[in-house]
Every structure is written in structure tokens, then in C-alpha cells.
Amino acid sequence: MREANEIRLPDHLQAAAVTKQGEYDARRLRSQREVIRDVMLAAADCDTWLTLSELRALTRYGEASISAQLRHLRKMENGGYDVSKQRREDAVGAGASADGRGECVWEYRILRILQPGLHLPA
Fold it and tell me: What whole-number distance in Å separates Cα of residue 44 and Cα of residue 34?
């Protein structure tokens, strides 16, 4: 398992999830969904798709929890985000067979959705 500082992502994206030792950890006051949302929006700002494994390394939450939170982010009461999923090219999952068939690696991206009558803050 790779740690957040081993993943090659822009510094501001890693900063959205990782805090420095000794700093006040505001993440404790935010929900898991809010942390995942903020990391995913930061990734989207730099046109980056993230796998569940990368999100786990960045947030230290379990992959099943991250997947559930991504599903919740689609709901209107949680922001109604456009959560996209695609197969990561040239990546093979841990359960794949020697002939290349089997599990694939999925990557995710969320985008802000403008609802009718709502405007983004200036």
C-alpha cells in the first residue's frame, strides 16, 4: 500500500487530505463525506482521476467507506455531484489472472453540478 506522500499528485491535492504533525486537525470536525468530497474536488480542479486505493492513501479511510461516500455524493441532499467512473488504462487489479483477464482498476472523478436557479459563489 502506498502512502499519500508516495503518490505522484500535485502538492495542493495532497494538502487537501494530509495535515502536518502539530497542526490543528480540522478534519476531525468534518465528516468523512466532506473530506472525500474536498479531495475529489481538488483532484477535479487539476483534471486528475483517483482510484479507491489512492483515495485510501490520501484520506486513510477504507475503500468500502470511500465507495459508499462517492455514491452518497450523487444524491441531491449531499450536493448532487456528477460522480464519474472509468477503467484505468494499463492497470491490473490484484485479483487478475496471468492472462490479463479478471479484475480491473477503476478511477473516479466528481464534478460540481449546477442546479436550476442556483449560482456558484463569485
Answer: 15
Handedness of CA 91, 97, 101, 107 (dihedral sign): negative
pLDDT in tens, 57-77: 999 999 999 999 999 999 999
Q: Which residues contact 76 (CB under 8 A, 6 or more apart)?
A: 115
Q: With beta carbons less than 8 A apart as the criterion, state whether 36 and 69 touch.
A: yes
**What residues have CB less than 8 Å from 10, skipping those under 6 apart?**
46, 48
Tell the residue number behind the cell numbers 489512492, with chain if given: 54
The ranges assigned to domains in the chain are 4-19+26-82
SS3 71: helix
pTM: 0.66
